[in-house]
Amino acid sequence: MKHQVTLNINGSEHEIFVEARKTLADAIREECGLTGTHLGCEHGVCGACTVLMDGQPVRSCLMFAVQCNGVPLRTVEGLADGDDLHPVQKAFWEHHGLQCGFCTPGFLMLATSVLEQEPDIDDEALREVLSSNLCRCTGYQNILIAVKAAAEEMRG
User: Fold this and answer.
1) CATH of the domain at 151
2) Which residue from 73, 68, 3, 69 is spatially nearest to 34, judged by alpha carbons?
3) pLDDT band at residue 34, thresholds of 50, 70 and 90?
């Protein structure tokens, strides 16, 4: 049996019909055509599927689409304003915070959430937050540098 769900993603409403077991990640990708949210482990461990749900980072592979009916969602596609990159995106670009790019959408969403809520976060707390997402390529140093640069720009 399929359920009617309205996903409010990046300010646009998507009326979809999904089975109760359809994950938010799959619904975003398959039903709404927004493929920036990546699926990695599908167990909530890697963070590649991180999206913002009412401003809070969530693992979209662990959420069901039906749980998100009418709740504001933000994906990586909602960060830039046209051709103007969000400060976090710009910092990742300028400070080489990505290599293969698979984990990048999840890091961008996690970093955006933390910086919007706590722009003066200290280095230790920032490391703790970022440690929840996994990257196999970068060694994390440039990700940390990029997020700190984005924080500076967003504060100032």
Assistant:
1) 1.10.150.120
2) 73
3) very high
